Amino acid sequence: MAHHFQLDNHIRGHWLPRNHADIKPWIDRRLKKAHERKGEGYVHHVIQEFQDLIERDADIYLGFTQMFAALPSGSPVTDYKVMLTLFDVILGEAPQFEESTVVAIPITAILLGPMNTQAGYLMFSNDRVNAIIKKMLGVWCKFLVSSASRSVLTEDANGWFGPAASGAIPNFNQTFVCDPDAPYRGFTSWDDFFVRLFRPGVRTIEFPEDTSLVNSACEVTVFRLQRNVQARDQFWIKGHPYSLLQMLHSDELAPQFIGGTVWQAFLSALNYHRWHAPVDGRVVKTVMVPGTYYLQAIDALEVNQTYTPHTKLGETPGPAPDLLDRSQDFITQLAARCLIFIESDNPAIGLMCFIGVGMVEVSTCEITVKVGDRVKKGDEIGMFHFGGSTSCLVFRMDTNITFSSDYPVGAKVPVHAAIAKVE
Hints:
The protein is an alpha+beta fold and 423 residues long.
């Protein structure tokens, strides 16, 4: 029996708090930290480069000015200079588990309002803006693989081994490879903690010898199943239909999947972030696709006027954090992502593709297989670093595949679970 996902006080996937009241105090604490070092200039040179880009390009200056001007009064981030000041603080921090409030994507927490404006849509589709964002995220990544980032791997109230986090990730020592008696439980960095391994036997591969079954590549929650996927579609409109050639970066193998099936599921910030082969077969191609970082679904812009980050506890939160939920399918076509094409040993499956899609600042994908490698179901094929968002399994039109009723939309799916059968 599948365990069905229930909405709680976090956005789906535990990347951000669902209640806006939890975001504003988090921002205020970082503003206080920035104020304490006021007059010292930016700590990270890339933030000054970002400011120079905004102020020296008239169109970008207009866009960043308009996106903040469109926000309602009371928004905690009032202009691009406040935004940059907050970024400068965040680049020297690892995500904390603050009193049961997870802000695993802190840059997004700052940009939720601006992302949800017409000006923001234009700016976050701008190549020069994406280039400086990529450079900025590179600086943050260097910190997250350093030993300094382990400071959040503690048992105090804001630590990832503290009481609140232990309630969200139960039985950590028994579930994941770690050393309970070592400092930081043996992890060398935040990223080392994030890409932690399951202990042997924690997730068994269901029906490993049955090649008619497809297994889950990740530890996920089902987002969408769509058949008869079109080569090109208007993926930026309401409903976000998949545009296959866009998803597959117009790869030469992409036409084989026109009219086929896409099964999409997203990852939780609190769980496991490695990918595993869903079928037995041979890796025929891998592709790393550069993309956007904070470009989100355009239909969400209609709700911008109701974005209220200062919502009080007990009030119904506005829709802005749900922007990330509604954009899961949209970003498969534009965000940084990787493609792993596998030719299944079962001819009824044939060629299929795994897509790992980065979300906002967690857009670092690592492929750990190469062309020609043979994989068995359950073999590791890659991972997300620093976070991860969503994944897709793509099948050809000729693949007669039926997905298990145990895992409908909204259901949690363990990695290695048998999710579909081919005839």
